[in-house]
Amino acid sequence: MPRLPKLPSPPVPGPLKAPPPRPGEGNGAVGPLEEAKEAGITVVDWVDERTSLSGAGRWLMFRKVPKGTNWFYTLGSATMFAFLSQAVTGVFLAMYYRPDPSGGAYESIRHVTNDVFLGQFVRGMHKWGSSVMVILVFLHMGRTFFFGAYKYPRELNWVIGVVLLILTMTMSFTGYLLPFDQRAYWATIVGVNINGTGPLIGPYLSDFLRGGSEFGATTLSRFYAIHMLLVPGLLAALIGAHLYLVAKLGTTAPPWLKAEKRAELHEAEV
Amino acid sequence: MNKREKEAYLRDYAILKAKGKPFFPYAVAKDGAMACVVMAVIITMSLVLGAELGSKANPTTTTYVPRPEWYFFFLFEVLRVIKPPSLVPLATIGVPTLAMILLFLLPFYDRGPERRPERRPIATVTGIVVIAAMAFLTYEGANAGSPTAIEMPTPAHVVKAGGATLGEYEAGKLVVAQSGCLACHKIGENGNSGPGPDLTHIASRLPRQGIARTLVNPTAPMPSFKNLPPQKFKSVVEFLSQLK
User: Fold this and answer.
1) How many domains would you assign to chain B?
2) What span, in angstroms and rounded, lies between the C-alpha atoms of A157 and A244?
3) What distances in angstroms separate CA A177 from CA A209, B70, B116, one per listed residue?
4) I want to staple B73 with a disulfide (CB 3.0 to 4.6 A). Which of A224, A250, B100, B141 is the partner?
């Protein structure tokens, strides 16, 4: 049947017209897509009304980053990503690990490596991820150093960064013992003894690490607690502080940008 | 930086920042791409290199040569190169502590306003030298043997004898280095001068049989080496009885 052309609607006096949809409200016929959108907005609004987090989010995500920031500026976030990867793989390893020096530790790692589904893969990611993280930390520090990014007003962030470097090294030192194979055991004995030769706090530090004057049963659980509770907590907190300061003070501009701007000004004056 | 320079920096930076792009999505996209690269590298390394597990820790072994993770090789090498016992604390803790303090305080003694690397020759050159030194030490540490390796000139009469004697001498030197003898004995410039006696001229005080007997049945706290494989034991005796 041929369709009839639609007739124009008859003129309606103003007061009888349906009011146009107000911004932010649905447009009469609401599809499931719009409903889902509305629901999302409602949830975000509900949370925001009680926390006022949206301002902080906007401040963090939509802050301006100076022009000319290149790939060197991604090293910091890459380091944080390596840390996240270590955290996730570490949680899975901790599900199987037993800090028992009389054979349980070695046996649990052997079990993860040989029997558990994808166990060797996850352990490999954790092991090599630590190397990747250390390399990224040093590259990030090199960028900061050569670009003079540690200067006013970012001195404090440099200091936090050095603490993060030390904590990363502590992680790799304490993690090295956990598989409790020959390599782990002897390298850690040597490492703790080296600590013991330090001035003033050296002997106390190595006694603390060993849990006594001899390498004994408590040493492994101490290293385990330091490796998976103490240092990761500190790392996460200080990464938060590091990021806050980056957002607060702004990403540094590449050092040569300033000089170019000066040259332009100079030409304009002449 | 004085107050004027600080204000000039803040002003310049504010202009540069205002001319910039928002963090999201521009910087986030780059960071995300980099995160994918990092993930790919970690996964590839895990798949290709795997995670080996050595033999179970055995506190009674005496011949294991400890090696740290590769990124501690530079410290390891400093320890290996500096032999005199009076300097060892300096090497193990002194140098790293000093380096750490210098690193911590960097923004407080380098206060110049200049940021371009080519206009900060001292900082840039120092940075390159430090990186080169660490790379060199890491490389050396990777190729070095144990921190307890014995470095001393081979006695002339052993070199002259050559052949089997020289071979035994070298083999024995290696076993002694790996057996932890240097923890208590001094040989030449190597090892600690106590609690065990100095072994630099041991052969002029003890005959060959005496050395062998002491190794099998020592005075406490020295461990007995009677469980060494016979070939290694013979090498150790041969090496020590050449130290006149």
Assistant:
1) 3
2) 9
3) 12, 15, 43
4) B141
Whether residue B122 is found in the same domain as residue B193: no
Cβ atoms within 10 Å of B106's Cβ, excluding its own? 18
State the Cα–Cα distance between residues A252 and B27, nearest whole angstrom: 13
CB contact A211 to B (< 8 Å): no
Query: Could you tell me if A31 and A38 are in contact, meaning their C-beta atoms sit under 8 angstroms apart?
Result: no
Indicate which CATH number applies to the domain containing B85: 1.10.287.980
Looking at the fold, whether B164 and B120 belong to one and the same domain comes out as no
* List of chain B residues with pLDDT < 50: none
Structure tokens at A263: 């040259």
pLDDT for A222-247, tens place per residue?
999 999 999 999 999 999 999 999 99
Integer Cα distance of B139 and B160 in angstroms: 34
H or E, element range at A211: none
Q: Note the pLDDT tens digit of each residue in A142-169.
A: 999 999 999 999 999 999 999 999 999 9
Q: In whole angstroms, what is the distance from residue B135 CA to residue A158 CA?
A: 23
Tell me what the mean pLDDT of segment A115-127 comes to: 95
ipTM value, please give it: 0.81
Statement to judge: residues B111 and B166 lie in one domain: no
Q: Which of A219, A188, A221, A208 is nearest to A97 (CA)?
A: A221
Q: Tell me if A152 and B6 make a contact (CB, 8 A cut-off).
A: yes
Bond from prior residue into A32 cis (ω within 30 degrees of 0):
no
Q: State which residues form the domain around B71.
A: 61-147
d(CA A156, CA B25): 28
What is the torsional sign of CA B234, B236, B242, B244? Answer: negative
Q: Assess whether B219 and B183 both reside in one domain.
A: yes
User: What is the distance between the alpha carbons of residues A145 and A233, in angstroms, rounded to a whole number?
Assistant: 27
Pair B131, B178 in one domain: no
Residues 122-181 of A with CB under 8 A from B: 122-132, 134, 136, 142, 145-155, 158-159, 162, 165-166, 169, 172-173, 176, 179-181
Say whether both B198 and B229 belong to one domain.
yes
Give the three-state DSSP class for A64.
strand
Kindly list the structural domains of chain A, giving each domain's residue range(s) and its CATH number in brackets, ordered by start. 76-256 (1.20.810.10)
Give the predicted TM-score (pTM) of the model: 0.78
